[in-house]
Amino acid sequence: MSESSWVPGADGSGFGLQNLPYGAVARHGREPRLAVRVGDHALLLGVLEEAGLLARAGLPAGTLGGPLLNPLLALGRPAWSALRAQLRELLSDAANGRATVQTALVPLAELEPRLPFAVGDYVDFYSSIEHASNLGRMFRPDSDPLLPNWRRLPVGYHGRASSVVVSGTPVRRPHGQLPPAEAGGEPSFGPTRRLDIELELGFVTGPGNPLGTSIAAADAADHVFGFVLVNDWSARDVQRWEYQPLGPFLGKSFATSVSPWVVPLEALDPFRVPAPAQDPAPLPYLRTDGSWGLDIALEVELEGAVVSRTNSSGLYWTFPQQLAHATANGTNARPGDLYASGTISGPEPGTYGSLIELTWGGRDPLAVGNGSQRTFLEDGDTVVLRGWCGPREAPSVSFGEVRGTIAPA
Amino acid sequence: MSESSWVPGADGSGFGLQNLPYGAVARHGREPRLAVRVGDHALLLGVLEEAGLLARAGLPAGTLGGPLLNPLLALGRPAWSALRAQLRELLSDAANGRATVQTALVPLAELEPRLPFAVGDYVDFYSSIEHASNLGRMFRPDSDPLLPNWRRLPVGYHGRASSVVVSGTPVRRPHGQLPPAEAGGEPSFGPTRRLDIELELGFVTGPGNPLGTSIAAADAADHVFGFVLVNDWSARDVQRWEYQPLGPFLGKSFATSVSPWVVPLEALDPFRVPAPAQDPAPLPYLRTDGSWGLDIALEVELEGAVVSRTNSSGLYWTFPQQLAHATANGTNARPGDLYASGTISGPEPGTYGSLIELTWGGRDPLAVGNGSQRTFLEDGDTVVLRGWCGPREAPSVSFGEVRGTIAPA
After folding, report:
1. How high is the pLDDT of residue B303?
2. Whether the predicted model's global pTM rises above the 0.95 cut
3. B131 a catalytic residue
4. Residue in A172, A189, A285 nearest the CB of B285
5. Hey, of B158, B192, B214, B237, which one would you mutate to test binding to chain A, going by the most A CBs within 10 A of its CB?
6. Gap from B139 CA to chain A (nearest CA, Å)
7. Which residue, B218, B192, B171, B207, is CA-closest to B320?
8. Do residues A382 and A171 make contact, with C-beta atoms less than 8 angstroms apart?
9. Domain that holds residue B27
10. Do B283 and A187 touch (CB under 8 A)?
11. Closest CA to A66 of A81, A46, A41, A50
């Protein structure tokens, strides 16, 4: 089949036939509707479904008629593949009957993105060895930067599902308890002074597993619908004071932003690469065959300046390992769970995925636009994370962006 | 109004007019229906609503017609109070028109309890100073048992919402990564050898707050619908190996059991008592007026033997403080969130709320039924947590029980 689309602007945009990511869009003040992004258009899936154009995908009636992807997520890979195949056919250069499809195409400029899935549980991992090592060096300068468990299992924790928001949602600077200036001193309460970002990649689950069973590493990919960019906003001062011994809580829970379009795993198949070698070899329940690294170029823009460029292919723990680990104790994944990678940092300073690393704890300010400098975020600052596969100018698959502007406390 | 009910067995059972807790029940294999427990009966709320007997409560149509309490939770205290007043009237000795109400009463023996609310986020605190001190003594014997933040804020973390289950659900012994026998050794993977319980009390939220706002401590009680008993099952070996630096994950996420009947906060009003004095005084955002301790007697039964008796009135951090803290950073609570207290331990060994404390890390086995001993849980063991207000023999308000039996790995 042709890889070209008749939709103007689709080819070479990163949102052509190779991608076809899923999202939800709304006209101002109206109910969200499910869509696939094609170039700079949203293709409304409910319109196609009602017109009978998706009949061969064989989805249960109404799967695409609501505001959320969760019913589609629950169906699993055969349904996803069938739907994707039919959408590719409808949008391909070789397609007949474009007129009806055309009625389902709406320019993105007329629409607002909405969060396209109801988040069941949100889990955040810590899977970049460079990031974990950098934080270890800063927080525990006198010991091994990696704790003994780090190379043995994908360290992770549960984050807050309620505050997962779609790109564009303003992020209010959080209040919190700030650590005492010296040991034994008084903490204070006020707006965070160390507001940070975390550049992450997250996967959204499809069919889950019954409570009391596990998802094997070899099967994990079949439970993964697709990927989004994640900005796991962090208040470093709040986090530092609260996190012992039960982990991050309010330092993270105020907002987690995701990109609006969920890129199907199938679209990423051509960009699977070998993940870094793991030493020591993981325990059998974490072993996989095949290449599960993802060659996705990533960048962080802060106030108009690109301050970091990195790639997700360097993540030490892969997404099948993450999902196998997360369910190894028999807990149940559900359609719409979000599992984020943890901050993605490369080996050099310009490839780090957080400001605390890029400025080394605030020591080395970054140059941003208009001759300004930043350590942590100031009110009004805008952060944009971007991701794509292939050449930047003409990506095969784009994740678009996840954008957020800091509102004052 | 009379405090006596015409329903046989209700008075003095802990499930009389003073209580009227909400739950969901199902005949075998059928859809769950919302109900209030009265004595040993479930009063089906949908039947009353359809018969027009709840009209004066003024609820939106269909609030009580589904399988979950969430629509009722979202309405807030005025609606809850109106519904409670009308139910008390219908069930009171002085009531007329009992015949229709009678048709809505079903013996509990014919029904199975179901989880009555969709859990949004699940947060677990660590609010018993005795429990936190005991764990500190065991895990960090050479330093202050309480970390510097403990008396400054209600330490907590996000748990897993998907595996919150109703009383009676079997709990499969989880697999997990078990710590190396000695530092630098190899971890292994297998069934936990240190399966534990945690006796907790949890509150279920009603109306939430918009993202970017907070719930003030003084207003927090109006956002709390009611309370359940919580058993936060824990795999201590898994937890010990995984929890640094991001907190508990798989050591906790395999199951959290709750009692089936949500006791309304209004029913607990007569049992509010002063909470322990807090030293140092909490920061202003954590200050409350009034008495927010809850005088609830609690016990842990293991294989037929009561191994602990305690009371929730000793919890250092109160539930309004917990909710104010959890939302202080602007994150949004939602109807149906579950916030658990953390293990409730008293000052003496027979009042501890976990086996790791009761056996002091497995050193001192407990005598249970049939001349057996236990350190941690064995396959087939049944644990029952109970809670009540007033005298044990004739409680004013009962929480019933949360029960679980360990299934083999």
Report:
1. 96
2. yes
3. yes
4. A189
5. B158
6. 11
7. B218
8. no
9. 22-114
10. yes
11. A46
- Whether residues B283 and B356 share a domain: the answer is yes
Q: Are residues B56 and B76 in the same domain?
A: yes
Q: How many CB pairs under 8 A join A and B?
A: 204
Say if residue B126 is in the same domain as residue B106: no
Q: What's residue A139's pLDDT?
A: 85
Residue B11 falls inside a structural domain: no
Q: Within this chain, do residues B170 and B66 fall inside the same structural domain, yes or no?
A: no
Assess whether A80 and A229 both reside in one domain: no
The answer to whether position B88 is within a domain reads yes
Express each pLDDT in A11-49 by its tens digit: 999 999 999 999 999 998 899 999 999 999 999 999 999
Assign residue B65 the CATH number of its domain.
2.30.30.230
CATH code of the domain covering residue B257 = 3.90.850.10
Measure A377 CA to nearest chain B CA, in Å: 16
Distance CA(A258)–CA(B364), nearest Å, equals 49
- Residue B124's closest chain A neighbor by CA? A246
Q: Are B132 and B64 within one domain?
A: no
Compute the Cα dihedral for A73, A75, A77, A78 and give only its sign. negative
For A275-318, write each residue's pLDDT tens digit: 999 999 999 999 999 999 999 999 999 999 999 999 999 999 99
Task: Please report residues of B whose CB lies closer than 8 A to that of A212.
Answer: 170, 172, 407
Which residue of the set A41, A131, A223, A325 is catalytic?
A131
From chain B, the residues in CB contact with A189 under 8 A are 283-285, 328
Contact A187 B325 (CB under 8 A): no
Please answer whether residues B407 and B172 qualify as being in contact, where contact means their C-beta atoms are separated by less than 8 angstroms.
Answer: yes
| Domain C-terminal end among B66, B84, B114 | B114
Taking an 8 Å cut-off on Cβ atoms, the answer to whether B162 and A334 are in contact is yes
**One domain for residues B329 and B400:** yes
Q: What percent of chain A has pLDDT over 90?
A: 95
User: Cα–Cα distance between B282 and B278 in angstroms, integer?
Assistant: 7
SS3 B285: helix
Q: What is the pLDDT of residue B184?
A: 86
pLDDT digits (tens, 9 = 90+) for B49-82: 999 999 999 999 999 999 999 999 999 999 999 9
Q: Are the C-beta atoms of A189 and B284 separated by less than 8 Å?
A: yes
**C-alpha dihedral sign at B137, B140, B145, B151:** negative
Question: Is the pLDDT reported for residue A271 higher than 60?
Answer: yes
Using a CB-CB cut-off of 8 Å, the residues of chain B touching A208 are 162
Q: To the nearest whole angstrom, how far is the Cα of A342 from the nearest Cα of chain B?
A: 11
Tell me whether residue B13 is in a domain: no
Residues A7-20 pLDDT 10s: 999 999 999 999 99
Asked if B242 lies within 8 A of A149 by C-beta distance, the reply is yes
B156 CB neighbours in chain A (<8 A) are 246, 249
Q: Are residues B149 and B286 in the same domain?
A: yes
Measured between beta carbons, which residues in chain B are less than 8 angstroms from residue A247? 157, 243, 245-248
User: Does some domain include residue A3?
Assistant: no
pLDDT for B2 beyond 90: no
Nearest CA in chain A to B123: A160
Concatenated DSSP letters for B153-168?
A: S--EEEE-STTEEETT
Domain count within chain A: 2
- CA dist B263 and B397 (Å) reads 8
ipTM: 0.97
